Structure formats: structure tokens, C-alpha cells
């Protein structure tokens, strides 16, 4: 992946040069009709604006955008497609249904299934993280709702986070509240954003930060009124895209490579570790109790 990234980086200046001439032609056209390509499937809606090179990816997996095996597979395929598309330089990740950005990993995928299934599921979680955290595109999370655990991880993978200014929405890695443990690469991703001390405390407590607290601790970069989340993401993206791709990409890779390499070099061991952890009776029991609590809360 790193080698492919470097190759893309080397090509980026040429791509930028031809891209800008190309884009300015398009821009003229765009004043009459905006050129938007759609790559949607039943879980993910993507709209790529060819004039700006920005794709908006909306997660659509009702009721709570949980990250099931099917969803993660679609997500990684879509991201790969955009990554390979020379017309796409930026990605805005958001939810198709406000109030929930993503409820994190689908707990049902981790309950009462076979060891083989857990292995396949965990590989898909790893793949999503490697692709999103390692993306060469500018990535912005437009967090238009709550975002626990795996949902928070997705947001933390992005280069910039804009959250709806609503204290009812919360974000955080709450794994310990479920009786499970955030893996080292979840921990590293958070620590790279907010630092070791905040991460250590937040992870032990399984803390969910309401939006204003999330801003205070640097878990998100900006809070804006709910109706402005998308437009703010678009204008922040436009600023980031003024930086030449190759320089920004090499810098991003330099900052993140050590973290991604740790998983790349230990993928199989990490899967084995997950399977042996999640198949423990005590862990299965904790997850069942947590799901039951969720259902009761609803009643
Ligand atoms: C020694 C080291 C070993 C290392 C081993 C590593 C192990 C690590 C393993 C895993 C890491 C885990 C990461 C995760 O992401 S776990 C998921 C954590 N997510 C949560 O805790 C979120 C729980 N959900 C909520 O808090 C709320 O549902 C909400 C705020 C997202 C939405 O609230 P609301 O709008 O009120 O909706 P409901 O609560 O009514 O939910 C609707 C419906 O959806 C179900 N549901 C919610 N979340 C999930 C989920 N994550 N997975 C599956 N299903 C979910 C909920 O139960 C309701 O279902 P219904 O009753 O059938 O309608």
C-alpha cells in the first residue's frame, strides 16, 4: 500500500497540472450543469463532483449505520474505487440519516457466530481502517450524529472532523463499557489525534464525549450548527485542496506510516487475538448483557 501511495504521489504533480486545465474547462461547463457521478449501492451513497474532485460518501445502513460485515465490505470496495479514480482528490464521510453517524461495529457480528466468521469480520474491520487511515485523499468527517466506538474510529481516521453542535450527540471509544477492549490500532489512532493522556483516561472509562466536550479535548476540530455540517465540510475541503497533492500526501504518509505498519506487519496475529478474545464465554456474556441493556433502554 505504501509503495502504491508513493507511486501515486510521484504522479500527483502531473495530475495536478493536467487536472487544473481540465478542471477549469469543466468549471465553465459546470456553471451550466454540474457534473456529478454517482456510485451508489444499497448501503453507501457516493456523489463525486467532477468539477471539484470531491466525493461525498453517505453511510446508509439503517437503523444506526452499524458496521456489519456486508457494510464494511461495501465500504472498502467503494473507497478503493475512489482511491483509484484520478478525478477524486477529497472525500467527505457522513451519514445519510442525521442523528447517528455510526453506531460502530455491528455487535450481532460478534455474538454467537463461528470462529471462522469472527476472523472474516475482523479482517474486514482491519481493511476498512487500513484503507481509510491510509487514504491518499483528503478525508473529512462530517459528523452529523452520535458516533460510538467503530464510528468514532472512522471519524478519527479522517484528516479533519466537523461535528454538529448538539450536546445530545456524543463520540468516543466506549469499548470498555461493553466489557471489551479497544485494540492497539484503535488506541493508536485516537492517541495520534488527542495525545496519550486523554486517550488513556478516555479508553479506560469508555468515555463518550458530548459534542462540546469532544471539541474541548480535540477529538473533533470544529462544531457547527447541524444544518451547516455539510457546507462547512465542503469549504474546509476546498482549503485543503489548495495544497499540492504530492506534498500533502507524502506528509500524511510520513505521519501515519508507523501506525499503519504496526497492523500491516501483525495482521494475522491481530485476527487470532480477536478471535480468541471474542469467543470467550465471559466476553460473549458481556456483549449479550450490553445488547439487552440497549433494548431495555428503548422500552
Ligand atoms: C487483550 C486485547 C484483546 C483485543 C481484542 C479486541 C476486541 C475488540 C472488539 C471490538 C471492538 C468494538 C468496537 C465497536 O464498535 S463495538 C460497538 C459499540 N457501539 C455501541 O456501543 C453503540 C450502541 N448503540 C447506541 O448507543 C445507540 O443505539 C445509538 C446511540 C447508536 C442510537 O440510539 P437510538 O437512536 O436510540 O437507537 P436504539 O438504541 O433504539 O437502536 C436501534 C436498534 O439498533 C440496535 N443497535 C444499536 N447499536 C448497535 C450496534 N453497534 N450493533 C448492532 N445493533 C445495534 C439496537 O439494539 C436497536 O435494535 P432493536 O432493538 O432490534 O430495534
UniProtKB/TrEMBL annotation:
Keywords: Acetylation, Fatty acid metabolism, Isomerase, Lipid metabolism, Mitochondrion, Transit peptide. GO terms for cellular component: mitochondrial matrix; mitochondrion. One of its GO terms (biological process) is fatty acid beta-oxidation. The keyword Heme does not apply. It comes from the Eukaryota. Pathway: Lipid metabolism; fatty acid beta-oxidation. Belongs to the enoyl-CoA hydratase/isomerase family. Homotrimer. This is Enoyl-CoA delta isomerase 1, mitochondrial. It comes from Xenopus tropicalis (Western clawed frog).
Amino acid at each position: 500500500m505504501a509503495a502504491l501511495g508513493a507511486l501515486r504521489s510521484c504522479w500527483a504533480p502531473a495530475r495536478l497540472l493536467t487536472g487544473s486545465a481540465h478542471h477549469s474547462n469543466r468549471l465553465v461547463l459546470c456553471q451550466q450543469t454540474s457534473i456529478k457521478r454517482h456510485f451508489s449501492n444499497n448501503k453507501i451513497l457516493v456523489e463525486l463532483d467532477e468539477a471539484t474532485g470531491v466525493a461525498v460518501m453517505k453511510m446508509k445502513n439503517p437503523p444506526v449505520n452499524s458496521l456489519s460485515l456486508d457494510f464494511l465490505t461495501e465500504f472498502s470496495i467503494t473507497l478503493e474505487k475512489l482511491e483509484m479514480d484520478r478525478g477524486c482528490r477529497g472525500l467527505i464521510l457522513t451519514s445519510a440519516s442525521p442523528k447517528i453517524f455510526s453506531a460502530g461495529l455491528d455487535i450481532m457480528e460478534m455474538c454467537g457466530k463461528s470462529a471462522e466468521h469472527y476472523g472474516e469480520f475482523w479482517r474486514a474491520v482491519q481493511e476498512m481502517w487500513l484503507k481509510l487511515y491510509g487514504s491518499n485523499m483528503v478525508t473529512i468527517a462530517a459528523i452529523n450524529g452520535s458516533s460510538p466506538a467503530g464510528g468514532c474510529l472512522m471519524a478519527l481516521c479522517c484528516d479533519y472532523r466537523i461535528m454538529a453542535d448538539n450536546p445530545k450527540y456524543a463520540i468516543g471509544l466506549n469499548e470498555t463499557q461493553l466489557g471489551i477492549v479497544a485494540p492497539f490500532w484503535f488506541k493508536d489512532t485516537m492517541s495520534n489525534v488527542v495525545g496519550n493522556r486523554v486517550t488513556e483516561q478516555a479508553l479506560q472509562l469508555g468515555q463518550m464525549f458530548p459534542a462540546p466536550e469532544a471539541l474541548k479535548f480535540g477529538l473533533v476540530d470544529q462544531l457547527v450548527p447541524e444544518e451547516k455540517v455539510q457546507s462547512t465540510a465542503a469549504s474546509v475541503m476546498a482549503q485543503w485542496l489548495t495544497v499540492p497533492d504530492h506534498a500533502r500526501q507524502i506528509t500524511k504518509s510520513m505521519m501515519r506510516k508507523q501506525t499503519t505498519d504496526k497492523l500491516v506487519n501483525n495482521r494475522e496475529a491481530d485476527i487470532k487475538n480477536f478471535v480468541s478474545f471474542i469467543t470467550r464465554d465471559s466476553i460473549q456474556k458481556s456483549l449479550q448483557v450490553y445488547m439487552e441493556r440497549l433494548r431495555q433502554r428503548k422500552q
